[in-house]
């Protein structure tokens, strides 16, 4: 029995091993079948294992075959130099869409532009993706790629000099596009707005002209590697101007300068300049500042025609106009840029205040001449010393009807006349034949002082002539600019030359 049991156990072990091997074979074959089935369900252009680390844009760029698949054949750090030699030519065009803001206090100008860059990269090839059409122009056939494709190809390092802030009006996708043409020309277009520093000079404010230069230049490539030039459009212009741009206080014009090179210690860097000229419209200040202040000066001058005895009227007119001009000058200074030098508007307001002050000063001089002290008369001196002159009534021998007064020595006490009044009680001292009395004075009559009238006659035309001369010098100097800006720019229409 023991032998039979041992023999049965020995036969069961090989059976278990065979069952385990069969089970593993079935599982392996099933897994292999599932893998084959999964591969059969994949799309034909499914990404390979070496593209799993790439983002969709880079993967699609490689799958399309736009750039060489071998990394050694394309290096984004090396610019695509022309086959004939020389530096790479990059063309740029600007579409000025709007002038959003002109900040005079911070001396900034905000622009909204569409920038387009053109360069040729022979390492890029899209001819196999375009239909064959012998009648089509090779420069018009292109493919449109995602803007993020620029991260995986060589791109010009263009930046805006003196730009304070750069904003992209992005909704879901940035407003940009990349085109690759059949002849391997790349075109990149983007829309953005930015704040650029614009040094301003306000010496002729409010008829000043500001020149803002926006510089687009390469940051790392010198002129030996790359050149930057403006690209002319179909109408031979370098910019597409927006005729609907309307500025409340300025007329504008745009001009372009080529062959700009920034020379520093490390070399010369290429660039181009877009010049924006802004000339202020003077209509606002003519109605709000110049006309009222000029009328106030005329009102103060008209006060000179009032009689000098009308002290309240003349003082009120002069002081009111002076205080009003001072308040107007303070309000104007709050709305103008705070600069350390004197502007044309400051000269005008100060001149008006000075003319009004002259009218007030003239009236003070006239009052001093009217009420100045003259030489006192002898009678006033005697009255001041307490002495009186005594006159005795006598009848003129030639004309008995005339009563003559004769002066005698002054006395401190008043003499008693007609002693018969008290002795005889007579009520009449004068004879009946006396009808009138004549006093003969030894002093000459005093002549009136007319110096203040002479001052009035001189100051009235003098102040008017001085104000006219001030205007004759002020306005020609304000509008004079040598004609250089008018020759270069058409500021009235706002068109670019």
How would you explain this protein's 3D organization?
By secondary structure, the protein is an alpha+beta fold. Helix content is about 35%, strand content about 25%. The protein contains 9 helices and 14 strands. The strands form 3 sheets. Strands 1, 2, 3, 5, 6, 7 and 9 form a 7-stranded mixed β-sheet that branches. The longest helix has about 40 residues, at about 1-40. It starts with a helix and ends in a 9-residue tail after the last helix. Residues about 45-55, about 375-385, about 385-395, about 400-425, about 425-445 and about 490-495 have low confidence and may be disordered.
Instruction: Profile the largest sheet.
Output: 7 strands, mixed
User: What is the residue-averaged pLDDT?
Assistant: 77
Global shape? elongated
Uncertain runs are 44-53, 375-384, 386-395, 401-423, 426-443, 492-497
**Topology as H/E string?**
HHEEEEEEEEEEEHHHHEEHEHH
- Count of DSSP H/I helices: 9
- Report the structural category: alpha+beta
Backbone CA Rg: 52 Å
Q: Kindly report how far apart the N and C termini lie.
A: 120 Å
> Helicity range of the residues?
25-40%
Tell how many strands the DSSP assignment holds: 14
Strand content: 15-25%
List keywords for this structure.
single chain; 497 residues; alpha+beta; four-stranded antiparallel sheet; 34% helix
Summed up:
With 497 residues, the protein is of the alpha+beta class.
Topology (SSEs and partners):
Elements: H1 2-41, H2 56-64, E1 88-103, E2 108-120, E3 142-145, E4 158-160, E5 163-167, E6 176-181, E7 185-197, E8 209-218, E9 226-230, E10 250-264, E11 267-280, H3 283-302, H4 311-335, H5 344-370, H6 378-385, E12 391-395, E13 402-407, H7 420-423, E14 436-438, H8 451-479, H9 484-488
Parallel strand pairs: 1-9, 13-14
Antiparallel strand pairs: 1-2, 2-7, 3-6, 4-8, 5-7, 6-7, 8-11, 10-11, 12-13
Helix pairs in contact: 3-4, 3-5, 4-5, 5-8
């Amino acid at each position: 029995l023991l032998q039979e049991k041992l023999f049965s156990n020995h036969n069961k072990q090989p059976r278990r091993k065979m069952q385990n091997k069969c089970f593993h074979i079935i599982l392996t074959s099933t897994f292999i079948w599932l893998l084959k089935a999964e591969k059969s369900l994949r799309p034909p252009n499914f990404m390979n294992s070496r593209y799993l680390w790439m983002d969709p844009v880079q993967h699609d760029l490689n799958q399309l075959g736009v750039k060489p698949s071998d990394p050694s054949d394309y290096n984004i750090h090396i610019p695509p130099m022309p086959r004939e030699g020389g530096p790479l030519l990059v063309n740029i065009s600007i579409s000025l869409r709007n002038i959003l803001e002109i900040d005079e206090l911070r001396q900034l100008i905000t622009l909204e532009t569409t920038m387009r860059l053109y360069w040729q990269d022979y390492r890029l090839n899209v001819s196999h993706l375009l239909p064959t059409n012998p009648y089509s122009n090779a420069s018009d056939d292109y493919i449109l790629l995602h803007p993020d494709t620029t991260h995986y190809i060589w791109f010009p390092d263009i930046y805006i000099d003196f730009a304070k802030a750069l904003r992209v009006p992005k909704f879901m996708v940035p407003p940009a596009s990349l085109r690759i043409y059949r002849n391997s020309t790349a075109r990149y277009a983007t829309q953005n707005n930015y704040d650029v520093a614009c040094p301003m000079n306000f010496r002729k404010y409010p008829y000043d002209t500001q020149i803002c230069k926006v510089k687009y230049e390469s940051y790392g490539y010198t002129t030996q590697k790359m050149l930057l030039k403006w690209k002319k459009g179909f109408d031979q212009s370098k910019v597409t101007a927006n005729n609907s741009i309307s500025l409340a206080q300025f007329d504008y014009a745009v001009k372009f300068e080529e062959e700009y090179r920034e020379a520093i210690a490390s070399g010369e860097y290429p660039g181009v300049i877009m010049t924006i000229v802004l000339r202020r419209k003077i209509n606002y200040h003519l109605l709000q500042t110049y006309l009222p202040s000029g009328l106030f000066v005329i009102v103060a001058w008209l006060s000179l025609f009032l009689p000098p005895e009308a002290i309240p009227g003349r003082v009120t007119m002069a002081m009111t106009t002076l205080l009003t001009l001072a308040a107007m000058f303070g309000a104007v200074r709050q709305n103008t840029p705070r600069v350390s030098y004197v502007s044309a508007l400051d000269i005008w307001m100060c001149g008006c205040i000075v003319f009004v002050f002259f009218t007030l000063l003239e009236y003070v001089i006239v009052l001093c001449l009217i009420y100045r002290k003259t030489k006192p008369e002898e009678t006033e001196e005697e009255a001041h010393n307490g002495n009186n002159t005594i006159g005795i009534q006598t009848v003129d021998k030639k004309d008995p009807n005339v009563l003559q007064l004769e002066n005698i020595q002054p006395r401190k006490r008043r003499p008693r006349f007609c002693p018969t009044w008290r002795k005889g009680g007579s009520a009449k001292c004068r004879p009946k034949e006396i009808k009138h009395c004549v006093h003969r004075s030894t002093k000459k009559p005093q002549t009136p002082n007319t110096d203040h009238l002479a001052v009035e006659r001189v100051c009235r035309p003098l102040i008017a002539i001085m104000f006219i001369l001030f205007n004759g010098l002020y306005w020609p100097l304000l509008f004079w600019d040598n004609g250089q800006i008018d020759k270069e720019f058409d500021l009235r229409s706002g068109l670019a030359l």
